[in-house]
Design goal:
The structure is a single chain. By secondary structure, this protein is of the alpha+beta class. It has one domain: mRNA Triphosphatase Cet1, Chain A (Alpha-Beta Barrel). It has 6 helices and 10 strands.
Length: 238
């Protein structure tokens, strides 16, 4: 993914692949698409919510409009967060199947201030001001941590089609900062992969046929929602 792109909208479809489907699917997309310059890379995210977890609970009801706000770090390990590794504050909104995403770059000092005061000094752009205003208005705080390794594929010299494969997904709930992450739990019991296909319009015919041949069909899957449900079920069982 072009990590410098700060705003876009597109259609996103999700698929949950069994371990047996991963290799043939990868062969399918590698025949037409190119792995991006980052290769397999680690993604760490802190999802914000209020103290009642209103946003994640509402999202699981599958409303026409839903939104997420998160802090995101691209790094092999969390220890780099205090060493100048770029952080992003991201807003992701979905309405009638169309995903709108905006984000703004954070320094480590701004990240610390945001967690401590729900504010950022010297906000240089309108996007950051709007995101911070929403955090303050909805009283949002970090609640959920997610980690996974992503492979991203796209058409050469084009943003019209992008395919991501996420594996090794792990989560930890009730986390208020990246520094608090200690023992994330695996989300999927098998070695399955979550695929997202992101397009500006319709899926190309070669991909539609390939998915059909492999018997891979769209699935409703939220990493945050599934983590929340799994943890809360486990809590009730104790």
């Amino acid at each position: 993914m072009n990590k410098s792109k700060n705003s876009f909208n597109r259609i996103e479809k999700k698929y949950r692949l069994s371990p047996e489907q991963v290799r043939p699917f990868k062969h399918l997309i590698q025949s037409r698409l190119t792995l991006d310059e980052y290769g397999p890379h680690s993604i760490h995210s802190l999802y914000l919510d209020d103290e009642r977890d209103y946003w994640v609970q509402r999202s699981m009801d599958k409303p026409v409009f839903k939104e997420k706000l998160r802090l995101r770090l691209y790094s092999e390990c969390l220890q780099t967060i205090a060493k100048g590794q770029p952080l992003f504050l991201e807003a992701k909104k979905k309405y009638n199947g169309i995903v709108y995403k905006r984000r703004s770059l954070l320094t480590y000092e701004a990240y610390c201030q945001l967690l401590r005061e729900q504010s950022v000094q010297n906000q240089e752009d309108q996007m950051m001001r709007e995101l911070v205003w929403q955090i303050q208005h909805d009283r949002l705080i970090p609640r959920f941590y997610l980690y996974y390794v992503r492979e991203a594929y796209s058409e050469p010299d084009s943003d019209s089609l992008r395919v991501t494969m996420d594996h090794g997904i792990a989560y930890q709930l009730d986390v208020s900062s990246f520094e608090e992450v200690s023992a994330p739990k695996p989300l999927l019991e098998d070695e399955g992969v979550i695929v997202e296909i992101k397009v500006q319009d319709a899926l190309p015919l070669w991909l539609v046929r390939g998915l059909s041949d492999l018997q891979i069909y769209p699935a409703s899957f939220s990493k945050v929602g599934e983590s929340y449900l799994k943890e809360r079920r486990g809590t009730r069982d104790v």
